[in-house]
Write a structure and sequence with these properties.
The complex is a heterodimer of chains A (about 70) and B (about 140).
Chain A (H helix, E strand, L loop, with lengths): L1 H29 L2 E6 L4 E4 L2 H18 L1
Chain B lengths: L2 H11 L3 E8 L4 E4 L4 H26 L4 E7 L4 E7 L2 E7 L5 H16 L20 H5 L1
Antiparallel strand pairs in B: 1-2, 1-5, 3-4, 4-5
Helix pairs in contact in B: 1-3
The chains are: A alpha+beta (about 70), B alpha+beta (about 140).
Chain lengths: ~70, ~140
């Protein structure tokens, strides 16, 4: 009886950890960001609110105009 | 290939792209899938301002760099700007597109513009009708 409770607890714990990881991964993918690639092969990813805001604003405007 | 044909081909090969505008630096629109000419011009202007801003951020961080392409991922969709020589293309897609594939398709579209149209096939020369020789001539 006790071992069954332990097993249930372990399964619940593992399930919630897996769920949290999946949720966080999905959330990170949905985050608004700007990836800029340069001719020399380098890439700059801008996701900080202060830096990315002007670029995101322009991109929103493009989406509006193109829709 | 002209801009209209290149954009038509782009729409055929990529189902992810919603709209695209081909333009030159300075904002001159070369071709667009957007019906309204003024809106296409506005998109080109905004896209150019976007990459100028991106280049400025890079200049501040790592020194000057030549822009190649960019993606802005938003919840409502993504905006792409790709450069090939003097020409640029700005495109919008649905949210979470296959980024590598979209970049490839946009670059191909710009390269299609550079390829000269295939030369027209020349019509095969007409065969001359066989001339009959008169029997009398042949005998003499």
């Amino acid at each position: 009886m006790r071992s069954r409770n332990v097993l249930t607890g372990v399964l619940l714990g593992a399930g919630s950890v897996a769920g949290t990881l999946l949720f966080r991964r999905r959330l990170a993918r949905r985050r608004e960001r700007v990836d800029v690639y340069f001719g020399d092969g380098s890439m700059v990813s801008v996701a900080k609110p202060g830096e990315a805001d002007p670029l995101l604003r322009r991109a929103r405007r493009i989406l509006e105009l193109a829709s | 290939m002209d801009a209209a044909a290149a954009l038509e081909r782009l729409r055929e090969i990529s189902s992810q792209i919603r709209a695209a505008v081909i333009f030159e630096r300075g904002g001159k629109v070369v071709g667009s899938t957007i019906g309204d000419e003024q809106r296409a011009k506005d998109v080109a202007g905004e896209a150019e301002a976007l990459l100028t801003e991106a280049e400025r951020q890079r200049d501040a961080a790592d020194g000057p760099g030549e822009f190649a392409q960019l993606e802005v991922a938003l919840q409502a969709g993504s905006v792409f700007v790709v450069r090939d020589g003097d020409r640029l293309i700005a495109a919008t897609t649905q949210p979470e597109p296959t980024v590598g594939l979209v970049f490839y398709d946009l670059k191909s579209c710009l390269r299609d513009l550079e390829t000269p149209p295939a030369p027209k096939k020349r019509a095969a020369p007409r065969r001359k009708p066989a001339t009959r020789t008169k029997k009398a001539d042949a005998e003499s």
